[in-house]
């Protein structure tokens, strides 16, 4: 029986081992792939392992690179499904081709659908298998780009048994998009509550913002200095120490000219007569500050972890050799000024033979904690630096083809809104470059109304973020801004009305993405002109008349003179313009509209009932 088991084991070991192909978790059952474009399917395997991809009766052959990655390209496919994709032994089922949207931002992109079911009870009976959702697991790595997302993600459809896994905005937008196009929709949600925009931009595009950039030269230096340079070679008997410094002991590090904290290696060569070769002996090293490890001829003979005990180490038989022998002391003093304490015994003794060890030694620094501290201070921002979410949650998606991006973020940056316009511009160009699509559409959600209303006009970080979003939507081609200052809740930073936001985003998609001819936004500020004691506001030509919501008086216009103090203004529609004034301001300089944390009462619309975006004529 024993021999039979051995034979079976040998047969098993002799069988060829088939390495498994590994896939990113979004390439899996129920996935949606972008229609009408060439597609990359990728993964990992052992170097040079052959990979066969089978789809629609055709075969695509490749092999893993030396780094273990493989990629195949599938031809463009029309919308539809379901399909099956086979990759070696893996079978992926229920694949749809349609439009894929990358949804990113912070907590309002994260709001779970289950929070909204009381307000929108139709969610509970959702029965749409043509919309799919994948949430990218959180991976925040500011120090390195990641090739893959974390495991654990899974595609869910929009049927009632799975819909509670969705986030709210993704669900409502998918429904709107599918209802309009009748094409499958895939929502790839890569977001994190509380995240700042800097976290979503690559290091290369954050150079204008030094506080968000990691000093990678310091990081590389830290990796070098943070390890013991002496291990394992400096303790060897045959190590060449001719370039080491010379010192005399006993002495302190300061007395020896050593100013660092950390670890210093000391080496001394002594002669042992042939008759003492291999004999057991004793090594006396007085007192050392702080801790030490001792080697003779490369063999460890003892250590002491703190400064007070006298150092007396046994030299086992077989360690000493005839002629030259090397003693190495690895001395560590984290607080600096290590020491071979004076007036103590420093000697090696074998029976009646003694070698005194005071005098000349060679030394070299193995760990310099001073330098390590310097380099650590240079990368002290690594936890707060930008790019961590780009590295871990956007970069790994770079080969997944998309229809467009939906971006809902800004709350975290409202405390310092000034850089946001440039940061948002960088994010768009950054992602377009990464995804190899300079025309990739971006749909922005403008921050909704939040916090209490103010009796008088005041400045606002939220207003300035909205302004930055507005300016980028005008400046950067193929972008759209959904105005939402009537969808928020004054006492909840996570308002529930994601459905109306989705509808407005869909209007933008119809215009920017699907190139339909329609009015997709409210009045868009263009320019202003000061005429005597009034300011006349002009809007971009969008084919729609200016109106007032509910036929009330225009609200939330503020005007200021040279003192830059804004007061509520009188505003009236004059044809395709708005005239703004105040009886006490005879020389007006600037107008602001819907400029506050909570401009819910602002009521300028167009004939289609779409809100005008907040704006200002000043640059104060």
Automatic annotation (TrEMBL):
Transferase recorded as keyword: no
UniProt-listed InterPro entries: BetaGal_jelly_roll_dom, Galactose-bd-like_sf, SASA, SGNH_hydro_sf, SIAE
Assigned keywords, A-Z: Glycosidase, Hydrolase
Sialate O-acetylesterase domain location: 388-492
Domain spans labelled Beta-galactosidase jelly roll: 236-334
Native organism taxonomy: Bacteria, Pseudomonadati, Bacteroidota, Sphingobacteriia, Sphingobacteriales
The keyword Hydrolase is annotated on this UniProt entry: yes
Record protein name field: Beta galactosidase jelly roll domain-containing protein
